[in-house]
Design brief:
By secondary structure, this protein is mainly alpha-helical. The chain has helices spanning 2-10, 12-28, 34-70. It contains three helices and no strands.
């Protein structure tokens, strides 16, 4: 943020050039279609759920092993 404020204060034309370049780069981005976005979001949710379950299961198993060792 400080660098950006410095650019604006020292040379406003540099900041305008920066914004034009950002806009040009965003036009080059290959944006996903709505269907691709929905599909990928579903994959992410399912993956997070599976990994969360696996971490919970491993944690529960280690907890039981430690309780057995401590007793």
């Amino acid at each position: 943020m400080v660098a950006q404020e410095t650019i604006v204060k020292t040379n406003p034309s540099r900041f305008k050039k920066f914004l034009r370049e950002v806009k040009a780069e965003l036009k080059k981005v290959s944006w996903p279609s709505k269907q691709e976005l929905i599909s990928n979001t579903g994959v992410v949710f399912i993956t997070v759920a599976v990994v969360s379950f696996l971490i919970w299961a491993i944690d529960a198993a280690f907890t039981q092993v430690l309780r057995f060792i401590i007793k």
